[in-house]
Specification:
Chain A: InterPro entries: AAA+_ATPase (IPR003593), ABC1_TM_dom (IPR011527), ABC1_TM_sf (IPR036640), ABC_CydC/D (IPR014223), ABC_transporter-like_ATP-bd (IPR003439), ABC_transporter-like_CS (IPR017871), P-loop_NTPase (IPR027417), Type_1_exporter (IPR039421). The complex is a heterodimer of chains A (548) and B (558). Chain A contains 17 helices and ten strands. Chain A has 548 residues and is an alpha/beta fold. The two termini of chain A are 59 Å apart. The longest helix of chain B has 53 residues. The chains are: A alpha/beta (548), B alpha/beta (558).
């Protein structure tokens, strides 16, 4: 748990200045609060004791503090929040980059419902580490140190006041492990509940078609109940921690009184000081046991984030990249590949030679591994044996970034983002002028439809292209690939979801729209108008020449 | 925009009011416990004040009082624990009820809802969770803020009238200070939550499409864009917080001012030999006086969260489900008739169905053909109750089909859509989903009939292989066959298939078509298909621009 939290702090290094400033301001503002009550206590003790002069001085000093303290509190809140926002933004982006590197092909078997919860609430829970754990603990430490210093004259009194407060300081660490378990349980329960909501919504047609509404609702209700139970456990722990904090402060207060009673007349002034110190510490120290819960929640969030972020990258980047080749002829030599050791190999001794400008149609029944070929070519997966060369250089020696610049791919799961059509297309070519966008749209056979939209290129696509029909979204994704300047195009079932006429119309223009580029058309059947220069059929892990 | 948001606010308030009323009994307990804890605190402060006075040379209290104060501290802690426990329980029932109602509505809206799945799931998860703060914290905090300070004020007034007046004035000033600093902050705060929601939405959208971004080398650019969006949001948020935090500052100024005034007042009082215990009592109760107000300010955030959540939930919950009749008994044979049916999704675009008429007789297989967008899927969607025609008549065995409740209408059919969804479960469970009470033998027969067994035999655990959400690990064609197996298992008198062979290679396609012929035997079937092999299935009806093109042709194979 500690290792994860230290790692989070390491990721926040860039914002160290802000984070330290927040802690410093917070400690200063807390000490001001202590000074305020200590002076008030002293003033009263002096007044009651008849020493009007000392009391007067105390009240004189009190006045500026009365104004300074709220200002300090305001500054503290501003600085600590600014620091938190910066730190959280940093970690969100770090996480995004890291997943792009480690899970470039997506999240696979993990439930995206669970991932949704992880990304949003786990990152947000990390603010507890700073705002609700580090800052109050260090501020409280300042209070305890100040208290010991002020009461140094009477060691027994110092012990009576400072000891309960010091125990409160240690409580977060004592409570955190148990709370961590409860927090992890609650987070898991929430992930399960989210998945229970998302899965049926993703497949809502199928749920309705099976009249499965009641079952889906029952599952969600069950997961909701499990979550409520887990939250109750966590809340109960927090309540106990809060009660412990209150009791410890009371112990310090009554300890000061007891010392005063025992010392009789001599120690009255010091006892009053000690009592007011305990009152001043109440706000800061009372929060501390709950800091343990926040610490635990942050640790649980951090653990799950790092679990995902530490997935091994599917293909390591070359330690010393080879020189970038000029050409883009592709050769496959003795390729052997299986997705997992216990799965049947997809390719066994695959040989393939694709000179520049080849239009290859790669055929085969569904599930034979046509898409795996694209994954290998783009280094989303690594072969167990053999090699693929691009322009004569083994792609294992080329940076993935270079490969993806040379090879553009329309995958089966190509996704449109909740952004404008123009922004979605420009993912392939950020600097493309509008004219180029229209050209690509026309080539993909969707320019006409986009022209009829009132907002044209600025029309938003919706999440996953939800504003368009399946075939339209597919054509927009196709336009994006055609817009790319890559000399090699991999089109994985480009016409899935299109009707026969549209499919034919697109494939007929394939030759002209991809002029000069190498095209690998992955499909389960040819319509007859593609005019490929080569046709290969995948069977038994090898590519065999086929008539089409 | 303004009247619209005002309407939303009204609906949100009504929702929260309705739920609070239903929860009255549950929230009363934490309020009473909170008041009891406050009374114990007051009593404890009185003992401590007397002890302090004794220390300062005004005897009258000793070890007995100290022991009593310690006992009161324990009692107070126990009461606070009990209060928290009661609060935790208060929101649970409300959340469970609201979550179920919202989820049921979302399922009922089904495919007609244009908003993203993430957004809809967040309604039933995050939004409903956000309501918890309203019931568990806001209502008790608001009540205690109303009742607590007067209680303390009265106690202080009893001990020393002047101090009581000072506290009373501070209490009256509090709403003024809040009004000055709080109202603008509340408005800004709400906009802030929405902006934060959009940022999270963007983050999720990009995470979901990560593979696409990586393949175009855009992950770095997108990471930077996310960073810029976060920076812009932070700047904006800090501007809002600058004002929002002032309300907390105002409260502290008030507390510090009260403390100073009390200290000043009692310095004069002490000279004239007043009651030192009363003076100390009033000073010691200053934190207790402001604690409920502080709790109120802290819970205000919960209220804002809840108001935002209620505003998002209210429109969903306010809508009534489509009423309709229940199916009296499952008819063994089904005749479907469309008469001049019209359906428009978007008034800005041409209608999806524009006066379509056809008839599918009992036991007949009707293949709908035509270019995409012609309205083939719309026919199936109407028969599944996913869409309602605005004109014309759709009848099942001569009865108006639209008079049935959509869920009842669906009981007639086995349906496979264009993008069938595989749930994160084993292949077997995915098939069984169509009919949970099916026997293992029936599930296996369905898997065989749809040629799922063909590829499942090659998987490590056969039919018990786990597939991911969205069918990860299976090719499109394999997922399609799993969905077809569901249709076999469903065993309904009407079969509705949307492009059942779209993702299949020709070899598998002819296998599947063969089994489809078996599936459709003795059942009425309507199949939308582009496939060149469609004529093998049955009579072909060409649809063009939402209506039948000429007279239906007779399929070659029949």
């Amino acid at each position: 748990m500690l290792a994860d939290l230290i790692r989070v702090l390491g990721l926040w290094r860039r914002q160290g200045g802000w984070l330290l400033a927040g802690i410093a301001v917070s400690a200063a503002s807390t000490l001001l609060g202590v000074a305020l009550l200590a002076l008030a206590g002293q003033g009263i003790a002096a007044a009651l004791g008849g020493a009007a002069l000392g009391g007067g001085l105390a009240f004189l000093l009190l006045r500026p503090l009365v104004l300074l303290r709220p200002a300090a509190r305001w500054t503290e809140r501003m600085v600590t929040h600014a620091a938190t926002f910066r730190a959280l933004a940093d970690i969100r982006i770090w996480f995004f980059r890291r997943l792009a590197e480690r899970l470039p092909a997506g999240i696979g078997l993990g439930r995206s419902g669970d991932l949704l919860g992880r990304l949003v609430s786990d990152v947000d829970a990390l603010d507890g580490l700073y705002l609700r754990a580090l800052v109050p603990v260090l501020a409280a430490l300042a209070v305890v140190v100040a208290g010991v210093a002020l009461l140094a004259g009477a060691p027994l009194l110092a012990a009576a006041v400072a000891l309960p407060l010091a125990i409160a300081l240690l409580l977060p660490l004592v409570l955190a492990p148990g709370a961590a378990r409860a927090a992890a349980q609650a987070a898991r329960a929430q992930g399960r509940m989210r998945a229970a909501a998302i899965d049926p919504l993703l497949g809502v047609e199928d749920v309705l078609a099976a009249n499965g509404e009641a079952a889906a609702r029952a599952t969600l209700a069950r997961e909701g109940q499990a979550l409520a139970l887990a939250q109750r456990g966590l809340g109960w722990r927090a309540a106990w921690a809060g009660a412990a904090g209150t009791l410890l402060v009371q112990a310090a207060l009554l300890g000061a009184l007891a010392w005063g009673l025992a010392a009789e007349a001599g120690g009255a002034a010091l006892a009053v000081l000690g009592l007011f110190l305990a009152v001043a510490a109440a706000e800061t120290i009372g929060l501390l046991p709950r800091a343990g819960i926040s610490l635990a929640m942050a640790a649980a969030g951090a653990r799950r984030l790092f679990e995902l972020a530490d997935a091994p990258p599917p293909v390591a980047e070359p330690a010393r990249p080879a020189e970038e080749p000029a050409g883009h002829a592709i050769r496959v030599e003795g390729l052997r590949f299986a997705w997992a050791p216990d799965r049947a190999p997809v390719f066994e001794d695959l040989e393939l030679d694709l000179p520049e400008g080849t239009r290859l149609a790669l055929l085969g029944p569904s599930g034979i591994g046509k898409s795996s070929f694209a994954a290998l070519l783009l280094k989303l997966a690594a072969p167990q044996a053999g090699r693929i060369t691009l322009g004569g250089v083994d792609i294992a020696d080329l940076p993935a970034e270079f490969l993806r610049r040379r090879i553009a791919c329309l995958t089966q799961d190509a996704r449109l983002f909740d952004d404008s059509i123009a922004a979605n297309l420009r993912i392939a070519a950020p600097l493309a002028p509008d004219a180029a966008l229209w050209r690509a749209l026309d080539r993909a056979g969707i320019g006409e439809l986009v022209r009829t939209l009132p907002e044209g290129l600025a029309t938003r696509c919706g999440e996953g292209g939800a504003r368009f029909s399946g075939g339209q979204a597919r054509r927009l994704a196709l336009a994006r690939v055609l817009l790319s300047a890559a000399p090699v195009l991999v089109l994985d079932e480009p016409t899935a979801g299109l009707d026969a006429e549209t499919e034919r119309a697109f494939l007929e223009t394939l030759e002209s729209v991809t002029a000069g580029r190498t095209v690998i058309l992955i499909t389960h059947r040819l319509v007859g108008v593609e005019r490929p220069t080569r046709v290969l059929r995948l069977a038994g892990g090898r590519a065999l020449p086929a008539a089409g | 925009m303004e009247p619209h948001s005002a309407g939303r606010d009204g609906a949100a308030r009504a929702l929260l009011r309705r739920e609070s009323k239903a929860l009255r009994r549950q929230v009363l307990l934490p309020i009473l416990l909170g008041l009891a804890a406050l009374a114990v605190t007051i009593a404890g402060a009185w003992l401590v004040a007397r002890l302090l006075a004794a220390l300062l040379g005004h005897p009258g209290a000793g070890w007995a009082e100290l022991a009593a104060a310690a006992a009161l501290a324990l009692l107070g802690a126990a009461l606070v624990l009990a209060q928290e426990r009661a609060q935790l329980a208060a929101g649970e029932a409300a959340r469970a009820r609201l979550r179920d109602a919202a989820f049921a509505r979302l399922l009922e809206l089904g495919p007609a809802d244009p908003s993203g799945v993430g957004e809809r799931a967040s309604l039933v998860v995050d939004r409903v969770e956000a309501l918890d703060g309203y019931f568990a914290r806001w209502i008790p905090a608001a009540a205690l803020a109303m009742l607590g300070p007067p209680l303390v004020c009265a106690a202080v007034f009893g001990a020393d009238a002047g101090s009581g007046v000072i506290l009373g004035i501070a209490g009256l000033l509090y709403p003024v200070a809040m009004a000055l600093t709080g109202i603008g902050a509340a408005q800004a705060s709400r906009r802030q939550f929405e902006a934060l929601g959009r940022l999270s939405g963007r983050f999720l959208d990009r995470m979901r499409g990560l593979p696409t971004l990586v393949l175009f080398n855009r992950q770095e650019a997108e990471a930077e864009a996310l960073g810029e969006a976060a920076t812009a949001l932070r700047r904006h948020t800090m501007k809002v917080l600058r004002v929002a935090f002032l309300s907390g500052t105002a409260l502290e100024m008030l507390a510090a001012g009260v403390l100073a005034m009390l200290a000043f007042r009692h310095r004069d009082l002490l000279g004239g030999g007043g009651n030192p215990a009363a003076a100390l009592f009033s000073l010691l109760l200053v934190p207790a006086f402001f604690a409920p107000l502080r709790g109120f300010a802290a819970a205000y955030q919960d209220r804002l969260h809840a108001a935002g959540a209620a505003a998002a939930l209210a429109p969903l919950l306010a809508e009534q489900g489509t009423p309709g009749l229940a199916l009296e008994e499952m008819p063994p044979r089904v005749v479907i008739t469309f008469t001049d049916v019209r359906l428009t999704y978007d008034p800005a675009r041409p209608p999806a169905l524009d006066g379509l008429s056809f008839r599918a007789s009992a036991g007949e297989t009707l293949v709908l053909a035509g270019p995409s967008g012609a309205g083939k899927s719309s026919v199936l969607r109407i028969l599944m109750g996913f869409a309602r025609p605005e004109a014309g008549r759709v009848s099942v065995n001569g009865q108006d089909a639209m008079a049935l409740r959509p869920a009842e209408l669906r009981r007639l059919s086995a349906y496979v859509g264009q993008k069938p969804h595989l749930f994160r479960a084993t292949l077997r469970e995915n098939i069984r989903f169509a009919r949970p009470d099916a026997t293992p033998g029936q599930v296996e027969a369905a898997a065989r009939a749809a040629h799922v067994t063909d590829f499942a035999e090659g998987l490590p655990q056969g039919l018990d292989t786990l597939v991911g959400e969205g069918g990860w690990g299976l090719s499109g064609g394999q997922a399609q066959r799993v969905a077809l197996a569901r249709a076999f298992l469903r065993d309904a008198p009407l079969v509705l298939l949307d492009e059942p062979t779209a993702h299949l290679d020709p070899g598998t396609e002819s296998l599947v078509i063969e089994s489809l012929q078996r599936l459709c035997l003795g059942r009425t079937a309507i199949i939308a298909s582009h496939s060149s092999a469609r004529a093998r299935l049955g009579r072909v009806l060409e649809i063009e621009a939402g209506r039948a093109a000429g007279a239906p042709r007779v399929g070659a194979a029949q």
